């Protein structure tokens, strides 16, 4: 029938509400980094809108300073996801500056026993990733109960994908476990431990992680281990380069020791499981093994 009144009146007369023809806004989940944001997206989408702040591998998360746009995102978020462990303190500041009801903040640090000075690169720690996924499913269900079953189903799928990466790592361990490697920064260390690799140059890594120049003794030890070819591979953080690191990488290449670039921000177009899986494959290849 033809409605002789305005559209709004017509909707009311026909027994419809304005909300029935207007897409209801989805809850917003904001992740500090896409490493955790991708896992969140696999669990929360399409029932939540997931936005990651750091998405470019060229960015150094340690030096990042958010602007007003990031502040508005965090202000509007129903859920906030972060690494924690002193890695991204700026997200805590933005969350604390929110007005009104506090947001649910899910940090990887909070699903494990983490102490000051422990490794902050938690996305390579499979136990932490598993616990994070389980916690986030619960938080999504509490923030959006109507889609509780969907969050649970997607969470199971993500945990299955994590399990596949764990199996891949276990198989790799049988090939490369016990090999001696080094790194310029402890980004790669949690994964190296899972693969059974023996990690050297800890003093050098700790200094770089704390953004100070390594002591001369640590530089000399690293240099000597490369010179004498005591290590099978050198991993380095492709996002936080400095002259002392560049010199060691150049020396490793000169001595035909494979170098492995690793990143803190996940390249776009990948899921966490494919990204970590590819990293494991690259390690195996660098160490001269085949799966």
Total domains? 2
Q: What strand line-up does the widest sheet have? A: 2-1-3-4
- Give the helices and strands as they follow along the chain: HHEHEHEHEHHEHEHHEHEH
Shape: globular
Enter the CATH topology name of the largest domain: Rossmann fold
Keywords: Metal-binding, Signal, Transport
Protein name: ABC transporter substrate-binding protein
Signal peptide: 1-25
Subcellular location: Cell envelope
Overall description:
The chain has 291 residues and is of the alpha/beta class. The protein has two domains: 21-163, 3-Layer(aba) Sandwich (Rossmann fold), CATH 3.40.50; 167-286, Rossmann fold (3-Layer(aba) Sandwich). It has twelve helices and eight strands. The protein has helices spanning 7-13, 18-21, 34-44, 68-76, 89-96, 126-143, 148-176, 189-194, 202-209, 216-227, 243-254, 272-286; strands at residues 28-33, 49-54, 79-82, 104-107, 180-183, 198-200, 234-237, 259-262. The strands form two sheets. A four-stranded parallel β-sheet has the order 2-1-3-4, sandwiched between helices. A four-stranded parallel β-sheet has the order 6-5-7-8. Helix 8 links the parallel strand 5 (180-183) and strand 6 (198-200).
